[in-house]
């Protein structure tokens, strides 16, 4: 695979460049299937219809700290994004959040049907590990470690476990500590994996790995707080819909627990802690600092 680097010094340009690189690779992987049937159409629909591609960007930026070319992490980043896509498709199902729209488009089960959406989510999960197991640019040891860590991050100890905690949380009232733990599993685990994978591929030392882990933990928390803030400060139509949904489900959020103003302060404090964790990397970590700053100003 030819060398690929993020070339622009402008952060927004780098983000766009990274989105283009990952989407091209995901499209290539999906076009490798020659049959055109409903599953294939739905896979492309679920993977290639927008999204900020934050997790691949985190992985690229982490790997670049260790002078790794993006081509070395591209397959792992695509696999992670496929798992993220699978989680969104399953999360939108009637048995879960029961959403009709995702990124402004009909959700997978609305566009196709429920059975197809379940199978698409399952297929993305398998595809992720198919892609990683075939990544011959990495040693077998690294591949196995990356695959193992992704099973942990996405499975019962991570994202899926967090989703279950979230569903069970609807029946009881959770405190701040419990909400943080739940979100760390449900949403944070994949962000943490993105940074961890960059460090594994880049042969990071123990203190560098630890620094990135701390950054990623704070990134996940800041992401969730700002997501909750967005629910009450975003466009009116979306706000009404999302707030009612959370209220109906009886879910606690950072806003319900601490109020909007406190949540904003907490988000900023978390962002600052994330940046402090990266101090050992000096200016080389600017791109990761810019990314977490972006969370405060995001519109989606
Ligand atoms: C995949 C087997 C399998 C199970 C899925 C449904 C589920 C188990 C987990 C839900 C996990 C989930 C949806 C967490 C929420 C994460 C979140 C806030 C997603 C939004 O992330 P963004 O903003 O999305 O990065 P975009 O649209 O930019 O990609």
Which helices and strands occur, and which strands form pairs?
Blueprint: H1 11-31, H2 38-47, H3 54-65, H4 74-91, E1 101-102, E2 105-106, H5 108-111, H6 114-133, H7 140-154, H8 159-169, H9 176-201, H10 206-233, H11 236-249, H12 254-258, H13 260-277, H14 286-297
Antiparallel strand pairs: 1-2
Helix pairs in contact: 1-2, 1-4, 2-6, 3-4, 3-9, 4-6, 4-9, 7-9, 8-9, 9-10, 10-11, 10-13, 13-14
The structure holds geranylgeranyl diphosphate.
The molecules bound to the chains, other than polymers, are: geranylgeranyl diphosphate
Give the SSE order as H and E letters: HHHHEEHHHHHHHHHH
Instruction: Tell me about the largest β-sheet.
Output: 2 strands, antiparallel
**Order of strands across the main sheet:** 1-2
Rg over CA atoms: 19 Å
CATH class annotation: Mainly Alpha
How far apart lie the N and C ends?
Answer: 33 Å
CATH fold category name: Farnesyl Diphosphate Synthase
CATH superfamily: Farnesyl Diphosphate Synthase
Number of strands: 2
Mean pLDDT: 92
Relative helix content = over 70%
Give the number of helices: 14
Q: Please state roughly what percent of the residues sit in beta strands, choosing from under 5%, 5-15%, 15-25%, 25-35%, 35-45% or over 45%.
A: under 5%
Unreliable segments of 5+ consecutive residues: none
CATH architecture: Orthogonal Bundle
Spatial shape: globular
Oligomeric organization of the protein chains:
single chain
Indicate how many domains the architecture comprises. 1
